[in-house]
Amino acid sequence: MSVETTTSTSETTPSTSETTPVRTAHHRRYLMCTPSHFTVNYSINPWMEPSRPTDTANAVAQWQKLHDLYLELGHEVELIDPLADYPDMVYTANGGFVIDGRAYVPKFRFVERQGEAPAFADWFREAGYDTVIPEEVNEGEGDFLLVGDVILAGTGFRSTGDSHREVGEVFDREVVSLNLVDPRFYHLDTAIAVLDPVQGVENGGPERANIAYLPGAFDDASRGILEERFPDAILVSDEDGSVFGLNSASDGYNVVISPRAKGFEKQLRERGYNPIMVDLSELLLGGGGIKCCTLELRPSSARSGTGE
Ligand code: ARG
Predict the structure, then answer these.
(1) Which of 88, 90, 280, when mutated, tests ligand 1's pocket best, judged by the most ligand atoms within 8 Å of its CB?
(2) Number of domains in the chain
């Protein structure tokens, strides 16, 4: 698939000035899981309070809107069957890390989620992915983000430093390790949003690989690395970070974000992106948002980002 459309919605590209780059939407293939068994009956992150009631029907309804939006945007969505004993399985970002048709399977830190890993491994095998079973503790795309040809890898709460080495070997790519220090932002995808995964400069395109991040989620050394590598990054406020504003899904033009992240919404518009708001308040009770519910399935030939 090499078709790149400006946007497949009825939205028009915002008028551009010399300072607002023209953005391009790229086709995406995602893996999602209906939250039919969603609840919070254990706590493995500061957002989860088992004593607070959850509404599974509301979780399903909110999730469905996200699912349908992806289809409206022209993306493909694959589904994995939910397992009754695994209420967190809706957060498919933790179900693996997929590049070039190869799937690196997770090894969950907490026993409560460990039974999800074989189900994801089976799904990948059946779907024809070259499926790699890990030795090291890692939580998939929750902690690994592909930006251009580089893997940004988070550690501090879930995935281990050893998994950063392992993921680099599995995909033969440079890995940049980043230390997360705030327990509310325990996965990298709660603290960084990849806006333009494609390295357009090499491809003759107008885009540069770029990200948005929450500086306070990282230690000084990691912040230094981010500043150096991504001088054009959008820095989001604590306010927007704290409502999981960064836990968003971008196709290079459309960026699906929480409606509570008002400042981030404005920043995205100023940079020529098209923020689209989807409310996953129910799933936030489990400590997850839009990106957590979305695993990108990158087929072969994605290297250097040809869009597909
Ligand atoms: N309750 C889940 C956990 O703590 C939430 C996972 C959120 N996923 C993510 N990609 N950040 O593991």
Answers:
(1) 88
(2) 1
